[in-house]
Protein: EamA family transporter
Amino acid sequence: MRARTGGLLAGAVLSEVTATLALRAATGVTLTALAGAVLFAEPLTPVTGAGIALIVGGVLLVELGARHPGEDA
Structure:
């Protein structure tokens, strides 16, 4: 019984770590683009904005798709 509980706990921890890393990656891309615009006067073009939106949207879709019905957020 104890081994099963440990496995379930490890799975829960890994799933949260994976979600956190994915969200951090999307946030990192966004903040890097914004920092470049502010610090180095890099232009934020519509293509740049679309790329950032696609990355953030893709991460959100992957996260939402990984959740199972009835699972707490």
About this structure: Residues 64 and 73 are 10 Å apart (CA to CA). The chain has one domain: 18-73. The mean pLDDT is 75. The chain is about 80% helix and 0% strand.
